[in-house]
Design goal:
The protein has a six-stranded antiparallel beta sheet with strand order 1-2-3-4-6-5. The two termini are about 35 Å apart. Helices cover about 30% and strands about 30% of the residues. A hairpin with a 4-residue loop joins β3 (about 60-65) and β4 (about 70-80). The longest helix has 16 residues, at about 5-20. The chain is an alpha+beta fold. It has one domain.
Length: about 130
């Protein structure tokens, strides 16, 4: 293999390795892109998990509140992996008072009452940036 080809392949391999997701998050982020800072967080029991997803095996559950452009609170559920979090998202019984989403192994249900849809979307986008 000539030197140019070897250099290009080595650079490509290094670039692919540097694009990895990094270490997985182990709890709700302390800061969320967009100006939110975690104000309170408590571990919670399965009773706070929405009934439609209680059959899935949660590893950890928290109730968290964030202060920022709009105060936002919700339940964060950590599952063994992203596929289980996605399954929880699909099973979730939708209602206008809650905003569900998942990112990585987390399934999050935000309390949407009184929170403008734009703020909920901005928060969700911020979580996507904060977790890998």
């Amino acid at each position: 293999m000539d030197l140019l080809r070897r250099t290009v392949l080595t650079a490509a391999a290094a670039a692919m390795m540097s694009c990895g997701s990094g270490p997985a998050a182990t709890e709700p982020p302390k800061m969320i892109h967009g100006g939110w800072v975690r104000f309170a967080m408590d571990e919670a029991g399965p009773e706070v998990v929405p009934e439609s997803v209680r059959g899935l095996r949660a590893e950890k559950i928290w109730k968290a509140t964030y202060k920022g452009p709009q105060d936002i609170s919700g339940v964060w559920i950590q599952y063994p992996g992203e596929t289980v979090a996605f399954e929880a998202f699909q099973r979730f019984a939708k209602n206008p008072a809650q905003r569900p989403f998942f990112r990585g192994a987390f399934f999050v249900v935000l309390n949407a009452e009184g929170v403008p849809p734009q703020a909920l979307g901005d928060f969700q986008e911020g979580v996507a940036k904060a977790i890998y």
